[in-house]
């Protein structure tokens, strides 16, 4: 069969599925704007498309997301017409619904079966929007209308798709009730063989030297250090955490951009903003035990999890991070925010410890509890890994489920 994947940052969530289909003997094409030129990757023919965001258009503010999605959808429409002219006819198309890439596919290949990766559907209340009052505009006029328009491109794509797939039940249930039956819940998958506990693991960190399981290493990971993933709460807890754990090394992984939400109003990074807020409460000797690593490679990240004594994970009610699942796979003792969809994978006092997202004191108390109780760490870390191996393992659970979803999508 002929498969086509659409993802502006391919492979993204299709990291495992697309090459697995190629290994199974299918022709697999991926359309993306991430690369400059066409190439082959793990058996997948990657076709580059160029997209420039529109400039200078005067729009109603509520239309910005829909307008951006429409422009990207048009770019992909033209790229697909070019593929069609060269004779490519996909049997199945799988697209991420977040950026509008699948909006006009039916006008090119009306008979193709279309599956949509349904990562998230925004809500005016009860999820990320309105969750954190510190960063909410007071009395915003028409919030629900704005969110409805923001979701419109996702809704249009899911309406025209034959099926959807979502990594967690909570993320699937964020979508409208009339479309929810289209969506199957299948997680992306964790390579639990590659990401596993290793008592002999060691990690070299500039300024910290060589760290092992014998060191008290506390880890906090974001793609970008920002409020959506609790960075501001973590930083406010940092002075007390350093005081409570005088031997701890705290490793903070993440870049200084913004993946979700908005940057500070003054245009600086959230890292600089929060350092300005808390640095005066941290003695120099304590601050020397805090290491901002920036972005690290895959091998380093695995070792970081393997040497971590306590791993911290925080998020608004929003999409679940791979980093949490990988920390569980590595057998970390985890302290996490008591938010959705974290509660789908972290059962309090079974696979980790939960705390109130907005309570820095509770964060510190959970970390201290884990640092001081070796038996508790071992029990929670073992259970966390067992949960991931049982329900989220790539080869034995998730990839077979994704193949089953693809087969059902192809059959109609």
UniProtKB/TrEMBL annotation:
Pfam families hit by this protein: Glyco_trans_4_3, Glycos_transf_1
Molecular function as annotated in GO: glycosyltransferase activity
InterPro entries found in the cross-reference section: Glyco_trans_1 (IPR001296), Glyco_trans_4 (IPR022623)
Keywords: Transferase
Residue span(s) of domain Glycosyl transferase family: 25-194, 214-387
GO biological process, one term: lipopolysaccharide biosynthetic process
Lineage top rank: taxon: Bacteria
Protein name (Swiss-Prot/TrEMBL): Glycosyltransferase
């Amino acid at each position: 069969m002929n498969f086509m994947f659409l993802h502006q940052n391919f492979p993204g969530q299709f990291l495992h599925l697309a090459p697995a289909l190629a290994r199974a003997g299918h022709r697999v094409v991926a359309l993306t704007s991430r690369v400059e030129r066409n190439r082959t990757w793990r058996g997948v023919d990657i076709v580059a498309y160029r997209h420039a965001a529109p400039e200078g258009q005067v729009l109603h503010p509520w239309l910005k997301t829909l307008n951006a999605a429409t422009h990207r959808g048009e770019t992909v429409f033209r790229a697909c017409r070019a593929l069609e002219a060269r004779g490519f006819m996909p049997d199945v198309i799988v697209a991420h619904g977040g950026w509008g890439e699948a909006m006009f596919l039916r006008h090119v290949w009306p008979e193709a079966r279309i599956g949509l990766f349904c990562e998230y559907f925004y809500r005016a209340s009860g999820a990320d929007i309105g969750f954190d009052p510190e960063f909410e505009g007071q009395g915003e006029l028409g919030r629900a209308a704005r969110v409805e328009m923001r979701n419109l491109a996702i809704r249009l794509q899911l309406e025209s798709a034959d099926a959807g797939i979502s990594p967690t039940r909570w993320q699937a249930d964020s979508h409208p009730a009339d479309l929810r039956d289209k969506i199957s819940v299948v997680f992306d998958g964790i390579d639990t063989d590659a990401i596993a506990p290793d008592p002999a693991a060691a990690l070299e960190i500039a300024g910290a030297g060589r760290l092992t399981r014998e060191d008290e290493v506390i880890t906090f990971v974001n793609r970008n250090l920002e409020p959506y993933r609790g960075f501001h709460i973590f930083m406010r807890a940092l002075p007390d955490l350093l005081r409570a754990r005088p031997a701890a090394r705290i490793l903070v992984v993440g870049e200084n951009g913004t993946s979700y939400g908005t940057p500070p109003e003054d245009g600086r990074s959230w890292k600089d903003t929060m350092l300005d807020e808390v640095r005066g409460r941290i003695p120099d000797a304590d601050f020397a035990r805090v290491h901002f690593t920036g972005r690290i490679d895959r091998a380093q990240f695995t070792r970081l999890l393997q040497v971590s004594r306590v791993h911290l994970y925080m998020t608004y009610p929003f999409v679940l991070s791979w980093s949490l699942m990988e920390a569980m796979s590595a057998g970390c003792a985890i302290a996490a925010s008591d938010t959705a969809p974290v509660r789908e994978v972290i059962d309090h006092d079974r696979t980790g410890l939960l705390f109130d997202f907005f309570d820095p004191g509770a964060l510190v108390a959970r970390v201290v509890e884990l640092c001081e109780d070796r038996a508790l760490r071992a029990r929670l870390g073992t259970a966390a890994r067992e949960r991931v191996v049982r329900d989220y393992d790539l080869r034995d659970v998730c990839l077979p489920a994704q193949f089953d979803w693809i087969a059902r999508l192809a059959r109609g």
